[in-house]
Design brief:
Layout lengths: L1 E5 L3 H8 L7 E6 L2 H7 L5 E5 L5 H7 L7 E4 L4 H14 L4 E5 L3 H8 L4 E3 L5 H10 L1
Parallel strand pairs: 1-2, 1-4, 2-3, 4-5, 5-6
C-alpha cells in the first residue's frame, strides 16, 4: 500500500517502527528537517521537505494521485483538516485519516466521511485498523 503522511513526529516514527509498516511504501511531508532526516534511512520511506504553505502542490509532489491512503498526522489540526479534505474530495483517496484532538472539530469533520483519530487515545491502533479495513 502506498501511504502519504503529512507530519513527521513521534507518531510517524512509531508508525514506521511498527511490524505492519513492512508491507507499505511511505512518503512523508514535513517542515521538520530533523525528523525527516531521522526517518529517511528507513526502508520504503521517501521524504519531502515542505517549506511553503502551498500544500496542494506538495501533496502532488508526494504522489497523492497514486496514494492508497493519506494520513494527516501533523500537530496543526487545521492543516490536517484542510489536507484531509483535499485528499478525500479532490484526489479521491479512499482511506484518509485525520488527527484531531479538539472534540468539536472531531464531531464536525467525522460527518464529512473522514476517519478521525484522537492523539490522546491509542492512535497507532486506530490508524492500523483503518489501513487494514
Amino acid at each position: 500500500m502506498r501511504i502519504l503522511i503529512l507530519g513527521c513526529g513521534p507518531l510517524t516514527t512509531l508508525l514506521l517502527a511498527s511490524p505492519e509498516s513492512n508491507e507499505h511504501q511511505f512518503t512523508i511531508l514535513s517542515d521538520d528537517i530533523d525528523c525527516l532526516n531521522e526517518v529517511a534511512n528507513e526502508p520504503a520511506v521517501n521524504t519531502l521537505l515542505t517549506l511553503e504553505p502551498l500544500m496542494q502542490d506538495y501533496l502532488q509532489l508526494g504522489g497523492i494521485d497514486t496514494a492508497d491512503a493519506f494520513l494527516a498526522l501533523s500537530e496543526d489540526e487545521h492543516q490536517n483538516i484542510l489536507t484531509s479534505q483535499i485528499a478525500k474530495h479532490i484526489f479521491n483517496v479512499q482511506k484518509v485519516v485525520c488527527r484531531l484532538e479538539d472534540p468539536e472539530l472531531q464531531r464536525l469533520y467525522s460527518e464529512m466521511d473522514l476517519e478521525i483519530v484522537n492523539p490522546t487515545l491509542d492512535l497507532l491502533q486506530d490508524i492500523t485498523r483503518t489501513l487494514e479495513s
